[in-house]
Amino acid sequence: MKKMMHTIAAIGMGISLTCCTQPGTEKYESTIVNPDGTVTFQYKNDHAKEVFVDVQFAGKNPMHRDSLTGLWTATLGPAAPDMYPYSFQVDGIGVMDPMCEQYFPNEGFKNSLLEIPAKEGALPHDIRQVPHGRMEYVHYYSESLGGTNTALVYLPPSYQTDTDKKYPVFYLISGTTDTEEVYYKVGRVNYILDNLLAEGKAKEMIVVLPYGNPNKLLPVAPRFGMPAMGFGGDVFSNDLINDLMPYVESNYRTINDRESRAIGGFSRGGNQGLSNGLNNLDKFAYLCSYSSFTGTFIPNVYDNAKETNSLIRLFWSGVGTDDFLFGNSRDYTEFLDQKGIRNVKVYTHDKFGHTWMNAKYFLSLTLPLLFNPEASEATMSQATPTLPKKGDEPQFTPGVMARMFPRSITSPEFSETDVTFRIRVPQAKTVTLEYELSDKALTMERDSDGVWSATIPNAADIVFEYNFNIDGTRVCDASNMYLSPCKGFKPSISYGKQGKFYMYNSGNIKHGIVCYDYAADKAEYRHPDADENAPVITLVMGKNHTAESWFKVGNAAAIADILVAKGWAKPCRIQVANQPAEGTSIKADNYQTWPERAEALEKALLNL
Questions:
Q1: Do 565 and 505 contact (CB within 8 A), yes or no?
Q2: 3-state DSSP assignment of residue 317
Q3: pLDDT computed for residue 503 by the predictor
Q4: Alpha-carbon distance 598 to 7, whole Å?
Q5: Sign of CA dihedral 451, 457, 460, 463
Q6: b/e sequence 5-18, b meaning 16+ C-beta within 10 Å
Q7: Got the DSSP string for 171-226?
Q8: Per-residue pLDDT tens for 349-395?
Q9: How many secondary structure helices (H) and strands (E) does the chain include?
């Protein structure tokens, strides 16, 4: 038992709309939306020689340093009301806005999020005063992957009160390099659907958000750092059909027939959605492609139009004419037209191409059609032909793929005992590695390719926060998809050589569900065997933490799941709050590091 306790301790070490200050810096507004629709960006960095702001509505633009305030500033726009990813480029290095809590969850690039509200009326994704559904973070054992995978599940507002009702399910997949959180934190599917339901414009449904690139979780990474692009019979598809869908249908009140299932997604996720939908028309009747396309060889589908059309209630495709996938998407829908497969096409011209502005817009158009045969048929019957081909449409080719996803470096990289971190910055003069296990930064060494590296000994089994300091500028690890969701600057997380995927190393065990209340800055975990009388542990956030920190860095849910599965702890509830509560409470600020906090939680669970 003592050995297992040490193992679990190692594992554990292991959305507000306001922007917050970086610890140790003077507070300032980093983004100001002006009355004329322009946006003023501000950034504080006394070490920088050259700074640009890169925002999706304006591209990359230089910033100028104000001699009085010391702030680098630029005013861009005007821009249409929406949500836009942005970052600062500091002496050639991409940096997230250290003053903004909202960020874009992604395997590679690290962007902050700017929200420009509408002056009049409301946007589909606005957070309005309407009944809100519930977003649940779930873990499920995947035989296809050989470990525990994760997904998000949206439950409509009535799910908690109308306990006899069953619901249809929409499987919605994010794009290439996106995580399972993107359709929630960037696509705002929950708020779009909340608003539509409040207006009576959509059917109640459950929405499931899978992670579209589980290959990245496996021991053998994709070649050259490129994301997995196979569809049908691949790891993602097997996990979706054979593991995630059975989990959802066993744990939620779902209607389990093809007329009550929809599938779709953005970019690669749209390809995955169409591929899995068309290959499983016995399971899905509604298909949605957002800025995407799929293969033109699927047996018994394209060459059997009459049968295929009888099975598909909605076949919907949206793409921007300025999207780099426009040519591929256009060619695919033309192929469908030629085969006699009924399908709807929607084109945009003003949402900056392959963007989540388009993805949200497409959601607002299609959610009212799902599980609504009359509305879907009306839309299908009014479908127009594919736009005529001009010959200059952009096409997604292997060359484009190689430019978008160049060969990456590996960071962190684990040996049996040590962990090595790397970053490519050829122009840097000095680079250090800062990490919470030590007060002293490690000086990194540069190789002939401009890659800096440093190794921490005896840290391969520990989960901890770290970041790079490049000539005085702190940055997270662009090669690591895991970010600490704290206020201000967001360091990266080293999850240890087992990785987050293998953190649940006890096999097919029961997993609790985690939910976040960003407005109240709270979070909760409930083990499936915990009743209303189950013991409760309160985890108090540290001064720079958010409601997510205890679960995403401290791995509170994983620790509880494993200890309960071993019979060493009672099924329980865990709540994250700003203040202690009655019963057992653990204050994050009483400990210096996440390994220490995780050990304190483990002891508390064992003593319930």
A1: no
A2: strand
A3: 57
A4: 12
A5: negative
A6: beebbbbbbbbeee
A7: EEE--TTB-TTHHHHTS-HHHHHHHHHHTT-S---EEEEE-S-GGGGSSSPPGGGP
A8: 989 999 999 999 999 999 999 999 999 999 999 999 999 999 888 88
A9: 14, 31
**Of residues 337, 333, 300, the one with CA closest to residue 318:** 333
The tokens of 289 are what? 């492609």
pLDDT(334) > 60: yes
3-state secondary structure at position 473: strand
What's 7's DSSP letter? H
Kindly state the DSSP code that residue 103 receives in the 8-state scheme. Answer: B
> DSSP secondary structure string, 381-418?
HTPPPPPPP-S------HHHHHHHSPPPPP-SEE-SS-
Say whether 229 sits in a helix, a strand or coil: coil
Whether the link from the prior residue into 412 is cis, omega within 30° of 0, is yes
How many CB atoms lie under 10 A from the CB of residue 577? 17
C-alpha span between 404 and 324 (Å, rounded): 11
**Identity of residue 79:** A
Residues 151, 182: Cα–Cα separation, whole Å: 11
Domain at 134-381, CATH homologous superfamily: Alpha/Beta hydrolase fold, catalytic domain (3.40.50.1820)
pTM for the complete prediction? Answer: 0.93
- First-to-last C-alpha distance (Å) of the chain: 17
454 contact partners, CB below 8 Å, separation of at least 6: 420, 421, 432, 433, 442, 443, 444, 445
Is beta strand 206-210 parallel, antiparallel or unpaired with respect to 147-155? antiparallel
Query: Are the CB atoms for 218 and 112 separated by under 8 Å?
Result: no
Q: Do you find a cis peptide bond into 78, omega within 30 degrees of 0? A: yes
Q: How far apart are CA 110 and CA 102, in angstroms?
A: 11
Token digits for 238? 């097997």
Return d(Cα 559, Cα 553) in angstroms, integer.
12
205, two tokens: 């449904």
Domain positions in the chain: 2-16+512-606, 31-99, 134-381
Q: How far apart are CA 387 and CA 379, in angstroms?
A: 17
Q: Which residues contact 291 (CB under 8 A, 6 or more apart)?
A: 175, 266, 267, 270, 318, 319, 320, 323, 325, 329, 354, 358, 359, 362
What angle do helix axes 594-606 and 2-12 make, rounded to 10 degrees?
A: 130
Q: What is the pLDDT of residues 167-207, one digit of tens each?
A: 999 999 999 899 999 999 999 999 999 999 999 999 999 99
Same fold, 31-99 and 134-381: no
Residue range 31-99, CATH number: 2.60.40.10
Candidates 140, 173, 144, 148; CA nearest to 252 is: 140
Measured CA distances, 232 to 208, 237, 332, 539 (Å): 19, 6, 17, 43
Burial of 471 (0-12, 13-18, 19+ CB in 10 A): middle
What average pLDDT does range 8-23 have in this prediction? Answer: 38
Backbone angles phi and psi of 258, in degrees to 5: -60, -30
What contacts 67, CB < 8 A, 6 or more positions away?
none
